[in-house]
Amino acid sequence: MHIQSPKGTRDMLPKDSFLWQWIEHTMRKEAALASYLEIRTPVFEYTELFERGVGDTTDIVQKEMYTFLDKGDRSITLKPEGTAGAVRALIENKLYAEPLPVKMYYLNNPIFRYENPQHGRLREHHQFGMECFGVKGPTADAEVIMTVLRILNQLGLRNLSVKINSIGCPVCRPSYHEALRAYLKAHFDELCPQCKERYDRNPLRVLDCKEKSCQVIARNAPSILDHLCEECDTHFEGLQQLLNARQVPISIDPQIVRGLDYYTKTVFEIIMQSPRGEMALCGGGRYDGLVKEIGGPDMPGVGFGIGTERIILELQNQGIEAPTREITTVFIASLGEEGRMPAYQLCMDLRVAGIKADFDHMNRSLKAQFRYADKLGVPYMVIAGGDELQRGTVKIKEMKTGDEKEIPLAEAVSTIKAIITQDQ
């Protein structure tokens, strides 16, 4: 039997690694500029964390989680999103007692969703996310939105805008639930079976349903913006002012509720206009009650998550390539058996000196070594062997110009380093 990767997963091949590293470097740089520090949480958590945090009425909990019993008969779930694990770590390690705000990001975070694999949607994908705890005002909301926009712009993605909404808080949301139920009651028979269950428990979830019949009904649903309390309304107005002050293209979309129960007040999506239509690249929002729900203090929070694979797909669709990279700077070719040990030693010495170097592991002919180095795009070639080696020298060749120079083997490292530095 030919073993293949599981359905909905994908290998990152060596030829693609630099693209991932370029994206990750950009994410790290922009997160650091905003004073966020990295957090790494386990790939799996106790199932209760996601049932309490994400919400048992969500598609994620009801349909998409990879959940199993371990050998101790404990219910374990592979991480379906990043925020709940970050909150659990915040509480368990008492990070809330440190100077506020607590600002953290996660990178290359594996996320598992059991759903039908589609173009750009995998059962295992990787997320970058930022979480800010302790800030009640809208400046933190604006900060995370501005940071992810900067990341996407730094990567070359254009035609970006932000859709924002407020979904209220425990004070004002009940009155909206009443208005929404009153509207949905007239369409109850047209709702999908799952939304009929949501009608009583969490009618807001109906607005996030992916069934077309429910989406048609949701279009004419009453707007939660007409039901906001004074605090939520002031917060939402403040966010708009902060984003407008930076000329961020924003639009208000009352249909955005996000797919997780823990959101309060701000929810947002980063939208990109493309020939294929409007694409949502990133989503996030505020979750002021989540820390308390999971067992910590009453502490506000805001954040987002974005899939690395989704970014890569859009970069490819737009023909955006990562900056060119140099795999190897110097390739040391050996001429004859007597040249192999000097080539090996010189290669190791160059690496110690911080120069990316390689030599022939395959015992190829000199001609084949040149062909191999040419495929690698190596800018410099060093030949060890023959008459030069008997004279205690090696030959260095600049591949672009074809210029060759004979240099003492004993001084090869310093000379090569000087040549490379001069040509940069």
Description:
The protein is an alpha+beta fold. The chain has two domains: 14-157 and 251-317, Bira Bifunctional Protein, Domain 2 (BirA Bifunctional Protein, domain 2); 330-423, 3-Layer(aba) Sandwich (Rossmann fold), CATH 3.40.50. It has helices at 17-33, 47-53, 59-64, 83-92, 139-154, 173-185, 193-201, 212-219, 230-245, 290-294, 308-317, 340-352, 366-376, 386-390, 412-423; strands at residues 37-38, 44-46, 67-69, 75-78, 102-112, 124-133, 160-166, 250-252, 264-274, 277-286, 301-307, 330-335, 357-359, 380-385, 393-398, 404-408. The strands form three sheets. An eight-stranded mixed β-sheet has the order 1-5-6-11-10-9-7-8.
What secondary-structure arrangement, pairings included, does this model have?
Layout lengths: L16 H17 L3 E2 L5 E3 H7 L5 H6 L2 E3 L5 E4 L4 H10 L9 E11 L11 E10 L5 H16 L5 E7 L6 H13 L7 H9 L10 H8 L10 H16 L4 E3 L11 E11 L2 E10 L3 H5 L6 E7 H10 L12 E6 L4 H13 L4 E3 L6 H11 L3 E6 H5 L2 E6 L5 E5 L3 H12 L1
Parallel strand pairs: 1-5, 7-8, 12-13, 12-14
Antiparallel strand pairs: 2-4, 3-4, 5-6, 6-11, 7-9, 9-10, 10-11, 14-15, 15-16
Helix pairs in contact: 1-5, 5-9
Instruction: Indicate the low-confidence ranges by residue numbers.
Output: none
According to DSSP, the number of beta strands is 16
Fraction in beta strands: 15-25%
Helix content: 25-40%
CATH overall fold name of the largest domain: BirA Bifunctional Protein, domain 2
Number of helices: 15
Residue-averaged pLDDT, rounded? 93
Please tell me the CATH architecture of the largest domain by its name: 2-Layer Sandwich
- What is the top-level CATH class of the largest domain? Alpha Beta
Q: Biggest sheet, open or closed, and with what strands and sense?
A: 8 strands, mixed
Domain module tally: 2
